[in-house]
Amino acid sequence: MWSERFIASRDSAEFRAETIQMGYSLTRLVAELGVADVSRLGAEVSLPTAFACAVSALGIPHREALLAMLFSWSENQVLVCVKSVPLGQVAGQRLLLSLAPDLEQAAQRACTLTDCAMSNWAPGYSMLSMRHEVQHGRLYRS
């Protein structure tokens, strides 16, 4: 159910393709490592669902898993800056270190949300994604 909701919430074809591709890749990795049986997840699995499956199979506590997911997302964004701004490697690491309190706060807030309070609504971000996916010269897929 959560995977279907997450995929449905992707506002552009690019966002949808990204989460399905990353979910597919992670479920393949989990299956090939023998960490978990992911056959029951279905054909289209979102990245958060694949991540939750791996976390559950490995017995990783939820809070640590959430922090890992937030850090991974942040690290990816900083890496884009390092490559395209340009922002040097050391400056990128400093930026990541400076984000630690914000990631902790975001994780703490996320843990208090009810199912109905969860949302990824960001209309400006969605509009930019829709424009981005039809650009001719692009540096990154997403």
Index terms:
142 residues; mainly alpha; Urease accessory protein UreF; 6 helices; 68% helix; globular
Label the structural class: mainly alpha
Q: Rg, please?
A: 16 Å
Shape: globular
What would CATH call the homologous superfamily? Urease accessory protein UreF
CATH architecture: Orthogonal Bundle
Low-confidence stretches: none
Write down the CATH topology.
Urease accessory protein UreF
Largest sheet, described in full? none
Taken together, the total number of domains comes to: 1
Task: Output the helix-strand order.
Answer: HHHHHH
How many β-strands, per DSSP? 0
Helical residues, percent: 55-70%
**CATH class bucket:** Mainly Alpha
**Strand share of the residues?**
under 5%
End-to-end separation: 25 Å
Please report the number of helical segments: 6
Average pLDDT reading: 89
Describe, in plain words, how this protein is organized in 3D.
This protein has 142 residues and is an all-alpha fold. Helix 2 (13-32) packs parallel to helix 3 (47-58) and helix 4 packs antiparallel against helix 5. Helices cover 68% and strands 0% of the residues. The relative contact order is 0.12. It starts with a helix and ends in a 10-residue tail after the last helix. The chain has one domain: Urease accessory protein UreF. The chain is built from six helices and no strands. It has helices spanning 2-9, 13-32, 47-58, 62-84, 89-112, 123-132.
